[in-house]
């Protein structure tokens, strides 16, 4: 092969490589370390004079993502093999004010897991999806699958999130409880001294914290990852939760079954007045804990910046 032909072949190969879609996209945008603050709310089952306790936490968080190099082969029978691509993550959340026994901020959540990209498939007939596999030390593992929505030019819109419990059985009637009213003192809610910045608006709609985290920033583009442990339509997807026996309970149970998880992650690009570019990650996650005939929404939100 002469030098000119070799150069032309190399150039064509380079162009093909450039045109080939990135199999890690869009979750590769998560790779790195993110830090920030958030708000956590959970209805805890209470073994005592009433069935519930409303825990509220202002939080600090570190979320780390690392690329898993290479293909992850999945063997097919009903269709040809496919390759997944993934990143592993570790989420660590502390209370922003309450100290633990060691004198440091109390840890309230740790979660190792994976994010995956799944190519389009013919059996089942699904477009390209993303999936999150998570392990929670309370004794729950989950698979949440969904899609990466079209990139938005600008900031996201945060739909309201509700912490109002509702009946498990249809028609899923909402049931209001007095613990959500911060103006009414109760022993069945986090003490005010532990949540000095929590407002009634945050309890009514935790996603206002995300709106505050985006306010005043020049967000030029947003990539949205929407996932659930129940099938989203479209696309029809897999997923589910698995709980240890204690959470499932027996007669009169469950103790606190994690029945469903729905989450949206927004990966945002911010342009500073001086032209500098930085990235922000925001998420809103709702886990439904089932006990005593109701589904109790456990909502977590955070605004994190890549460091």
Strand order within the widest sheet?
1-2-3-4-7-8-10-12-13-14
Structural class: mainly beta
Which whole number gives the mean pLDDT? 93
Domain tally? 1
CATH class (first level) name: Mainly Beta
Number of helices, counting only DSSP H or I runs of 4 residues or more = 4
Assign the CATH topology.
Answer: Lipocalin
Under the CATH scheme, which architecture would be assigned?
A: Beta Barrel
Distance between the termini: 48 Å
**Total beta strand runs:** 14
Radius of gyration: 22 Å
Q: State the helical fraction.
A: 10-25%
Overall body shape: globular
| N-to-C series of helices and strands | HEEEEEEEEEHHEEHEEE
Poorly predicted runs: 3-13
The main β sheet shows up as: 10 strands, antiparallel, barrel
Overview of the structural elements:
By secondary structure, the protein is mainly beta. The protein has a single domain, classed as Lipocalin. The chain is 11% helix and 50% strand. It is built from 4 helices and 14 strands. Strand 13 and strand 14 (294-306) form a beta hairpin. The longest helix has 17 residues, at 3-19. The protein starts with a helix and ends with a strand. Residues 3-13 have low confidence and may be disordered.
